[in-house]
Amino acid sequence: MRFGHSMVFMALAYVAVHCLSLTQVQAQEKRLVRNISIIGNKKTRVPYILREMDFAEGDSLAVDGLDQRLEQNRQNIFNIELFSSVTLEAETINEELYIIIEVKERWYIWPYPYLGLEERNTYDLFSNKNLHRLVYGGGIIWNNVSGRDDRIDCYVQFGFSKRVELEFIRPAIWWEQNADLLVNFQYVTEPEIIYGTDSAKVQWGETTTTNLRRRIEGKIGLKKRFTPRSDLTLQVGYHHFHFSDSIYVLAPTFITSDMGNEYYPAISLTFANDQRDYRSFPLNGYKLQLMFRQAGLPGWGTTSFSKLGFSWSQYLPLSTRWNLGYGLHNMMTIGKRVPFFEKNFVGIKTREFAGLSSNIRGYQRYAIDGGFVNMTKLEVKFALLPLQIVNIKAIPFDRFDEFPLGIYLTAFNDMGFVHDNSFNNEDPFLKDQLLMGYGIGLNIIGFYDNLLRIEYARNHLHEGGIYIHGSVSIK
Prior knowledge:
CATH topology of the largest domain: Porin
Shape: globular
Structural class: mainly beta
Largest sheet: 16 strands, antiparallel
CATH architecture of the largest domain: Beta Barrel
CATH superfamily of the largest domain: membrane protein fhac: a member of the omp85/tpsb transporter family
Strand order of the largest sheet: 5-6-7-8-9-12-13-14-15-16-17-20-21-22-23-24
Low-confidence stretches: 1-26
Order of helices and strands: HEHEHEEEHEEEEEEEEHEEEEEEEEEEE
């Protein structure tokens, strides 16, 4: 009997070891990528699609986890926003992989007229009853100009403020280094500007004889891509602001100079690791951003200060319809003599660090300036209509008949804290205390990744309101 038991035990042990060995072999099994073919790219050049992938012809891919890796690469290609749909499939022939990518190109040239009111946000837009900040103009956004995922954006504006903006992005300007070129120029004249706050409500100041502010800004940058989802961007720029003497009557500490001018060079460094599935409306993955900016150099500029930024966001699918997202956003300024318009804000888009969130939901009616800003956000989504690619065959143009569509209910809770020790800390309202906003919302993601976010939010002052936005809150 003992001998029989030993034989059974040895047989079971042999089977277990054999199964374990097979599992390890399967996990380590790899297949060669023999060929990658692309279908549907009428204008986009093949190398600029392939650079979004984390493997190439001749690489070997592990069989274990292959489907997940192929899906990540499909997302990489979709996220460059050149295609309305992307499919990626793999066929195995003689133990080798043949990758087939099918894309449907979007429409790339968008001339657009513009007519609107130059307000801080939609709350101010609907609250103010006059039209004197009316602006009108037009421009053109031309994506994928030469088939290299390059972009030209030109805009001219008249009315309340005059504006000329030019932007040019050229991916892979140095192909061997995988480095992209970014160029931006702005010329703006404004008869009226936000010169401060009173009880955290924005205060507008104006002149009737001349422009209150004229600004000229230009910058050039290089983005070094380490992978399709991580990069480091270096930008060098110059900023020059000229103010009417009225600024000293409105706010003596608005700028650091007593000559009516504020000017300085600036250098910024930004690292981003974006592992989210869809950038326009993430449902899975995470994003890390680290930012540093130095404005002014010794002997060059009217002032000198530094800015640090940190952002972490993560999205966790809980089931096929439920999703959890949270984010941490922090901005800090080093240096007390900072122009008011260069401070960190809750309620006004932060200059340079546009990738960071600038709103605590429930506080849209307020603008809070500070040297240190912290925002912590939590959001739960429920999919009424899960995000999907919709095809409407009745549309006769193939570049418009497919687009993403999703409808989500949300519940959220935002918290924040603002501290200010700068020389122009004129309004202590809502600083150095816990800010808390909460509410519910409806998110609609639609044509060409455009997002409509309608939310009802309340704050710790027991104020509530309905607010409209066009981008995700947790960035």
